[in-house]
Amino acid sequence: MKRKRMTQLFPFLLPIRKTQRKSFFYAKMYFDRNQYAKAKAPEFLPFCIYETKSKLLNENTGFDMKYQENKVFNLRLAAEPVNGLLIRPGETFSFWRGVRYAEKNERYKDGLCVVNDELVTVPGGGLCHLSNLLFGLFLHAPLTIVERHSHQLKDFPSPDEDEPDGVDATIHEGWLDLKVKNNTNLTFQIEISINGPYIYGRIFVDQAKGYSYEVINRDKSFFKKDGKTFERVSVCRQVIDSKSQQVISENLLYTDVFEIGYLLPEGTAITEEKEI
């Protein structure tokens, strides 16, 4: 049996624990000698190297759609301090350092979030939608991933069928962050906008390059273990020549394994497996 944490046994301690964790979380960044991205530019850099969009509302959650609408409200607050942010040579981007004061004027609303392997509603729920989008942008740029955490449970199918699986980054203030470092001589810039049913993301660079990146899945499979269904998928990145559009190289970035919390389409091949 999985041992319960102290805050699960005594829930009244949770606010104290959260405050403690956040204090240490930001203090560690203050003293870690990294130079964190914080500057914005009035205009975007000249070369867009990748752009994407993602549907804001997901009707497959099983929850009241008001929580999806609350998520959009939360995303608007969190996107504002990130939009236009520069990541200069030697700088590190931190999700939480970027959005730390996003709700200083307006408070986050209740949205959906996975807590202790359960989908629940919490203030600020839904911000993973933004961290997922940002992670997808970063994988299409020559940035070094410093910290990224995958979701252990996928509760409902993605509303964007063309999205590769496993390209996600869960975040939890005080515990889990998304960080990338710019180890190049280039300057990058983030653009995030919300318009209609979509959230849009673009990443810019100050110098034109002769190649681009494409992120794809390999070896996607489903299996059962202890009565639960899991997906295993490899995430690979291709380097594409800008002129010929030919694949120059391909390398494996990582392999993710996560539980599936919804019914897969009829006919999906699922194997039995004793160990993950």
UniProtKB/TrEMBL annotation:
Pfam families: VanW. InterPro entries: Glycopeptide_resist_protein (IPR052913), Vancomycin_resist_VanW (IPR007391). It comes from the Bacteria. PANTHER family: EXPORTED PROTEIN, EXPORTED PROTEIN-RELATED. This is Vancomycin resistance protein VanW.
